[in-house]
Amino acid sequence: MLREERTAAGRLWLLLRALDTPGRGMVTLADVRAALTDKQSPLRLCGRRRLRQLLAEGEGVFWTRERPRTHPDGEEGDRLRLFGAARVAAALGVPRLAGRPVAVPVAALLGPIGDARAHLYATFHSGRTKEMTNDELRMTNEERALNSSLVTRHSSLGSPVSRDTLAALSGVCARSQAAYERRAGVAARPNYALGERVAASASAGPAEQERAWQRGRALFRLRDHRGLHGRPGATYLAWRLPNAYGAARGHQPRPKGQQKRINRQLADLFMKGMTGNGAATIERRFFGNAKEITNYELRMTNEEQQARSSRAARPATTTRHWPLAAATDGPGRGGCAVWGTLEEKHGIRDTRYG
């Protein structure tokens, strides 16, 4: 909805689905006007004139307007047939649903359009959060949980994601992303990658010069005073990674339910070439631990390995990360996480660090 600039009509579609409590996919125009335009209604959204504009904007994408035979004249009996999630996703150019469904409070959609945009954007982060099992929750009360990769892997935050990736997915620029996150109450945590161990001298060696060409201003030296990653007092090369984000304020994760069925419907709605091999994919770079990296590569089919191993399909250097330690102070300001690094240059792995 954000990428196609259909937030206003999409918000109305979500509210209409909330009004359709029986789940018939049909609401009468009289009920819509009474619920969304009446000044005494708790669900008031806009006036009648604005409602007519929104109904015209969403026609054919979110719903279709029907007039039953019993009321050939006038609008008293008009009704809206709401389209399902698969048809709306296909109309908006979404080839596949990913992540977990998220329940957004109705009150978040009834305020200014800026608040609605912020919450729709924040649903991406809310759908990527993870949950802890009972055993992992028990570990948080133990001393060994501070450096446990198991607890880190199942933290409440999703995997790191860059601003450029978020902009490509949502069509929202980086400045608006930060504003939406503050508006919707999205928790963020910075992440840092741990590189080679270097000498503490002031002069930069060949390894540091090469890293400077690769990482630019994101590169810095990290002094491990407490010996969390090796010998106490050692100096490492480190650089900033994308942030990890948590769920927005008031968002509740929901079961996937019919998501597989919707994805099958989407595959049928899209022509061959729009999904599958012709679709752009995002290379996975962040994993729960080092073992998951090996399992991820083993699960790749021969066709995927051939496509990704060609120099035209992938960059010369592939970098993957896994968490080394839990966040220092949790999500929000002051907390951060350190990630190990595994690089593969032209098929040759480099495991000197991490």
Radius of gyration: 25 Å
Quickly give the structural class: alpha+beta
Topology as H/E string? Answer: HEHHEEHEHHHHHHEHEEEHHHEEE
Residue share in helix: 25-40%
Q: Helical element count?
A: 14
Major pleated sheet? 6 strands, mixed
- Mean pLDDT across residues: 80
Question: Strand percentage, roughly?
Answer: 15-25%
**Overall number of strands:** 11
What is the rounded distance between the termini? 40 Å
Instruction: Note poorly predicted spans.
Output: 143-154, 272-280, 310-314
Overall, the morphology is elongated
Structure write-up:
Strands 5, 6, 7, 9, 10 and 11 form a 6-stranded mixed sheet that branches. It is built from 14 helices and 11 strands. Strand 10 and strand 11 form a beta hairpin. The model is unreliable at 143-154, 272-280 and 310-314 (pLDDT under 50). The protein has helices at 7-19, 29-36, 48-58, 85-91, 107-110, 113-126, 134-139, 149-153, 163-170, 174-184, 206-215, 259-269, 290-299, 302-309, and strands spanning 26-28, 63-66, 79-82, 102-103, 188-198, 219-224, 234-245, 252-253, 317-325, 337-345, 348-350. By secondary structure, the chain is of the alpha+beta class.
